[in-house]
Design brief:
Helices cover about 45% and strands about 10% of the residues. The chain is an alpha+beta fold. The strands form two sheets. A four-stranded antiparallel β-sheet has the order 1-2-3-4, with helices on one face. The chain has a three-stranded antiparallel β-sheet with strand order 5-6-7. Helix 8 runs antiparallel to helix 9. The longest helix has 20 residues.
Length: about 400
């Protein structure tokens, strides 16, 4: 057997530049008196490749010999120590459980809960844009509150809502990692929130027209043009702009408008369509709009599709109004609260909101359609100035 351990620690430290063999294929290649690298040369399958064992002096003589001994064992077993090391590195990287992989796995697990399986990207986007560029390649088990604080600090006040969402999504990812059996700090996001402090930004709600001013505005929408008709239907039904803009003749049957789940704002129970009771006034608006329908859509765009999301907002801007279309939902809700004794669940359902917890919803099979029908008829009477009566539910 070839002689091993020819070098000594003292010689290695003082050896000049050049190659110095330790035996058994291990040698030190010194570039200068103070630095170099360890090389292991072996024979396998008719070839004599070289394998680096690390830089000197970071890797000591003893450590280099231990690595060479392990490499010789692989050679005796007919395996390339280079390929063995490459395989071990790939496996180690997989076992790191990087945040980017955990985030994608968490997203996949929640797609069924998201509107359109999350294809619009709203759930994942805060992570993708503001967290993963900095922490994506960090093992999730190593992420602490300092990492999170430093990542979100630049947008914590300037983009408060986005930062808040990113922090919430990150907390979900950490819980997902824990469920996979990884050792993570589940309190890291809360501790980061404490470090970041209270956000200066305050969430501002879209301005709404006071409910007492709605009848006068409604009367001003007197022209049989699509913008006026769409605004009138929006007010009469208290629905969101998207649902109104995408209203289709096939969705309407008599005095009921059934909005497909995908046209409603994402809700946990949005697996079913939503029924909207139509007052006689709303039915008249639909009848008028149907005269200009294209491809079944009540409010078609100039060239294709439907009117844009900005159409009604721009109309109110041109009239120099601070209020915006979405605000009419608040106008309606305030009117309900101040002039009626409508039960909470009826009023909230009228807005398409989810009411109660999952267990309560599982046992409650009604959508209060008839109660809502009476309420919406009263609302229509009010906005058209036909009645100012107080609504009472006995």
């Amino acid at each position: 057997m070839r002689e091993l351990n020819k070098l000594s620690a003292a010689f290695v430290k003082s050896a000049p530049a050049g190659k110095h063999g330790d035996g058994g294929g291990l040698s030190l290649h010194k570039r200068s008196a103070t630095s170099g690298k360890w090389i292991f040369k072996f024979s396998l399958h008719g070839k004599r490749p070289e394998m680096g064992l690390g830089p000197y002096p970071e890797v000591s003589l003893r450590q280099a010999r231990e690595a060479a001994t392990e490499a010789r064992q692989h050679v005796r077993e007919g395996r390339s120590p280079i390929k063995v090391r490459q395989k071990e590195r790939r496996e180690a990287e997989r076992n790191l459980h990087l945040l980017k992989d955990i985030a994608l796995d968490a997203f996949e697990a929640r797609k069924a809960e998201l509107k359109g399986d999350g294809k619009a990207g709203r759930w994942f986007t805060p992570l993708e844009l503001h967290v993963l560029p900095k922490l994506g390649r960090v093992p999730v088990a190593e992420i602490d509150q300092i990492d999170i604080r430093n990542t979100l600090a630049p947008i914590w006040h300037e983009k408060a809502d986005t930062a808040y969402k990113a922090l919430g999504r990150l907390a979900i990812c950490m819980k997902h990692a824990a469920a996979l059996g990884l050792e993570v700090d589940l309190n890291a996001t809360e501790k980061a929130r404490a470090l970041l402090g209270k956000q200066r930004h305050k969430i501002t709600h879209l301005p709404a027209l006071p409910w007492k001013e709605v009848p006068a505005f409604y009367r001003s929408l007197s022209e049989p043009i699509l913008t006026h008709l769409a605004m009138r239907l929006l007010i009469l039904t208290a629905m969101r702009s998207k649902s109104v803009r995408l209203a289709h003749l096939d969705q309407i049957e008599g005095d009921t408008w059934t909005i497909p789940a995908e046209n409603m704002k994402s809700r946990k129970d949005a697996a079913t369509d939503f029924r909207v009771p139509l007052s006689p006034e709303a039915q008249e608006v639909i009848s008028e709009a149907s005269k200009s329908a294209r491809d079944g859509y009540l409010f078609p765009g100039v060239r294709k599709g439907v009117i844009s999301d900005a159409t009604m907002s721009r109309y109110m801007e041109r009239r120099e109004m601070e209020a915006r279309p979405h605000g009419f939902r608040s106008s309606f809700r305030d009117w309900v609260a101040e002039t009626t004794n409508t039960p909470h669940e009826v009023a909230e359902t009228a807005l398409g909101h989810v009411v109660g917890g999952s267990v309560e919803r599982a046992y409650r099979r009604t959508d209060h359609l008839e109660q809502r029908r009476a309420l919406m008829c009263r609302w229509a009477d009010y906005v058209t100035a036909k009645s100012g009566e107080i609504v009472r539910f006995g």
